[in-house]
């Protein structure tokens, strides 16, 4: 006989059956003992069910209030359709949340104190925060004292401040919330003039009512960060009677030294994805977890970017024109499934956005298909995931899907004309260009159609591409015997094509040969085209794969058709990246990242433990670590 205190597992079938019976009793109006009245709509219910899910009804029916003895209870400030969703949740456990219902549902759940519904609505709203609604979400979070929603929305407002301060929702912010935003150190602005303009727009939106806040609002502007021209014209346009008050208020509140806003500290960085795949130590290859690291050419420093969730590998990467970083697809080690090689890998449909302030990845709505190494591009206001390697067969490699950031939804568009595993994509002039072998197709978003463009003279795969102005650069890769649509042949050779460069003129629909990248023997795929330092650059490895790595950045001069060494990257700064990495460019905040201090690898040291080691022909003292 079991002890009286022994816990028994819950009978899930009975729990489901009980809910089904309660729902049946509700629908058939059996044994109901209270009727909720909203306007002209009646909801016959059971007090016990309502009290079980709502603290509001529990207090009403069990706290000795007059309603506890009434058979009809009037509810005010509640929408009938929204109340129906809450009642359905009480009887079924299912909460029907959508973009159109979530805000009134959140308000009603807060009023009725339906805690679980409130949490579900909060999580839904946090996930749906975007540049178009973040100001409204900030106000909602403040109104209902929801710190998680308020903080998440505020971070988006700070991140997208150059866009959101012109929205009507921003101009209607309360005085308190406005001060909270304008005083933030985390505003993503490159100039303080943006903050000044935002403050003036808010004041001018209703100058008669808001003139009392003139001093408090303008005192949030960091005057010393403004240009001299702006400072001289600072008080032009202000109401004459208030100028002296504003002057006194501003200068009394001004600190001696201003702290730069976060956006003023941004640095353009190369972001390396799946770097450090392996590293030789005493002639033995030691596997490392794929990592994401950043290199700042400006500061010549390396930083650690937060690794993708679940150590995702083979992801697609994108940095949008407004500097948002996304990763999509990839593969993970299947939990509780291990093989002799260390684990079973499975492709996934994941999609994440980088919260650059927190250096964390935020999950967004997954893609419709699992994809390995999809090409991600930003075009005409949307994100596209194109193809991918060997997931779901040829049909899946052809599929293309589009992400709507406002709706947080994916949808399918016209598939690629052919299935390729070696393609790369760029966006230019509101079109998407897919390049592989000697072919190129152009996708027109507004007609959802693919068009074949001019054919290249060379057939190369694993190449890199970058678009700049009216030109598309196709760089490096391996020369392939596959030409045109004959994708049944899978042979390719190096042939020094890692240094080949072809340029496509969008206006002329023509390809031309360009100057080759300065050659380095056997660099594999370590030649990457990027838009960096206000032009097209090449990041490339300068040494043989088995040698100690050295990297360089070359920049292209269009007028002279030549590549020149823009910046060598010291091996003391950027060590081994492996061979399977790819890279992109984004502007990140050094203060939000962890600086990666260089540590010399063990194989540089002599076995006798000497305090010096040889580096480029000179003896270097072992640094303190």
From TrEMBL:
Keywords: Kelch repeat, Repeat. Gene3D superfamilies: 1.25.40.420, Kelch-type beta propeller, Potassium Channel Kv1.1, Chain A. Residues 32-99 form the BTB domain. It comes from the Eukaryota. This is Kelch repeat and BTB (POZ) domain containing 2.
């Amino acid at each position: 006989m079991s002890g009286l205190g022994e816990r028994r597992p819950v009978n899930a079938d009975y729990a489901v059956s009980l809910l089904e019976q309660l729902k049946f009793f509700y629908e058939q109006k059996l044994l109901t003992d209270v009727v909720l009245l909203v306007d002209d709509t009646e909801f016959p219910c059971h007090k016990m069910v309502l009290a079980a899910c709502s603290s509001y009804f529990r207090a009403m029916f069990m706290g000795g209030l007059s309603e506890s003895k009434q058979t009809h209870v009037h509810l005010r400030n509640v929408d009938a359709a929204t109340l129906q969703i809450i009642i359905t949740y009480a009887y079924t456990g299912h909460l029907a949340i959508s973009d159109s219902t979530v805000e009134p549902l959140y308000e009603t759940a807060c009023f009725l104190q339906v805690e679980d519904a409130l949490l579900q609505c909060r999580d839904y709203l946090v996930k749906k925060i975007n540049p178009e609604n973040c100001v409204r979400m900030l106000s909602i979070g403040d109104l209902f004292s929801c710190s998680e929603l308020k903080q998440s929305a505020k971070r988006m407002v700070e991140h997208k401040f150059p866009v959101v301060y012109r929205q009507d929702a921003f101009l209607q912010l309360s005085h308190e919330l406005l001060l909270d935003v304008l005083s933030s150190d985390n505003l993503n602005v490159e100039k303080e003039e943006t903050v000044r303009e935002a403050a003036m727009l808010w004041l001018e939106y209703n100058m008669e009512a808001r003139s009392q806040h003139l001093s408090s609002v303008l005192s949030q502007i960091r005057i010393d960060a403004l240009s001299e021209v702006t400072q001289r014209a600072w008080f032009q346009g202000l109401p004459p009677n208030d100028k002296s008050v504003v002057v006194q208020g501003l200068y009394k509140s001004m600190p001696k030294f201003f702290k730069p806003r976060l956006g003023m500290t941004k640095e353009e960085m190369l972001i390396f994805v799946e770097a450090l795949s392996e590293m030789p130590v005493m002639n033995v290859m030691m596997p490392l977890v794929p990592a994401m690291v950043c290199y700042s050419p400006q500061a010549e420093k390396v930083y650690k970017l937060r690794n993708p969730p679940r150590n995702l590998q083979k992801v697609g990467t994108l940095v949008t024109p407004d500097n948002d970083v996304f990763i999509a697809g990839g593969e993970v080690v299947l939990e509780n499934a291990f093989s002799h090689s260390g684990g079973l890998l499975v492709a996934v449909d994941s999609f994440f956005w980088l919260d650059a302030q927190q250096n964390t990845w935020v999950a967004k709505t997954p893609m419709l298909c699992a994809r390995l190494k999809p090409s991600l591009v930003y075009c005409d206001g949307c994100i596209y995931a194109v193809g991918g390697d060997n997931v779901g067969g040829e049909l899946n490699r052809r599929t293309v899907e589009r992400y709507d950031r406002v709706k947080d939804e994916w949808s399918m568009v016209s598939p690629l004309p052919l299935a390729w595993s070696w393609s790369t994509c760029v966006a230019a002039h509101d079109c998407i260009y897919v390049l592989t072998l000697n072919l190129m197709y152009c996708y027109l978003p507004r007609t959802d159609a693919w068009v074949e463009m001019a054919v290249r003279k060379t057939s190369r795969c694993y190449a890199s591409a970058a678009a700049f102005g009216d030109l598309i650069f196709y760089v490096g890769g391996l020369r392939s015997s596959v030409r045109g649509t004959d994708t049944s042949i899978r042979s390719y050779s190096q042939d020094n094509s890692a240094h080949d460069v072809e340029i496509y003129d969008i206006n002329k629909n023509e390809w031309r040969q360009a100057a080759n990248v300065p050659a380095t023997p056997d660099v594999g795929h370590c030649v990457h085209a990027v838009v960096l330092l206000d032009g097209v650059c090449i990041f490339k490895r300068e040494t043989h794969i088995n040698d100690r790595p050295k990297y360089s950045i070359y920049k292209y001069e269009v007028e002279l058709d030549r590549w020149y060494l823009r910046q060598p990257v010291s091996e003391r700064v950027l060590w081994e990246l492996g061979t399977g990495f790819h890279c992109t460019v984004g502007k990140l905040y050094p203060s939000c990242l962890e600086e990666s201090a260089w540590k010399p690898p063990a194989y540089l040291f002599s076995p006798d433990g000497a305090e010096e080691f040889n580096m480029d022909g000179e003896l270097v003292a072992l640094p303190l670590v």
